[in-house]
């Protein structure tokens, strides 16, 4: 069995073990692949592993031996799953591997905003504390989370973990799928849902107009969920107090109206990259391949379980 991993640079920059995967067949792995390189590398592969590399119908038809695609992540919007099903190619992903680390990052973004961490760090390093007349000074407000509400859009494993942390802070949790209006009107709205054609740019002018004045928006899901122009207007006008984003509509973002807005905290899609989470990716990839080889359907995606 020939196994080809087309783009492992982010999943494993060099600190993980490949032993289990290597035991399953002949493994060829590459940090990155252009489409032209990928077609050559994958042409006679039985199993294809991809992180963010897109696989469409045309690509699949040029790989006549291909029987299984394993996504080294949870999201699957870059794979034509319907084409794969029609061609008899299985597709599996790695669900729930990053619930703890992504939820932790969601709150890291939120606390950076609510506690004005960057503002105070810069002030101290610029000498403002040293020049203060008292033992401390107030430069920006701090927003207390206890007693506030958080609306969670996407109540899967990550959403549930965010809810548990929020409750630990003394927040009221509103679940979008149960009560959309209560979730949207919360003090904090956190996105943890998959991106589909139905919810692309769901956070637009109309959505934001329904949000509470002075609310915070956190997105650790997919950048395409947000209309960045609409969010920029809301942040500049003061409609929203701040936004914490680990994902953008285009990655890396060549241009975005959000890049120069002080109350928008942006990190480069790193919520999942704790070593423990990435090792889980590698382990589950191997489990998925082993299951398929034995006739199983571990973590398989098809028309029956995706929209």
Can you walk through the features of this model?
The two termini are 31 Å apart. By secondary structure, the protein is α/β, with parallel strands linked by helices. Strands 7-6-8-9-10-11 form a six-stranded parallel β-sheet. The chain has a five-stranded parallel β-sheet with strand order 2-1-3-4-5. The chain is elongated. The protein contains eleven helices and eleven strands. Helix 4 (81-86) links the parallel strand 4 and strand 5 (90-92). Helix 5 (99-114) crosses helix 7 (157-168). It has helices at 19-22, 35-42, 57-61, 81-86, 99-114, 117-125, 157-168, 180-184, 205-210, 228-237, 275-293; strands at residues 2-5, 26-29, 47-50, 68-71, 90-92, 149-153, 172-175, 188-191, 215-219, 240-245, 264-266.
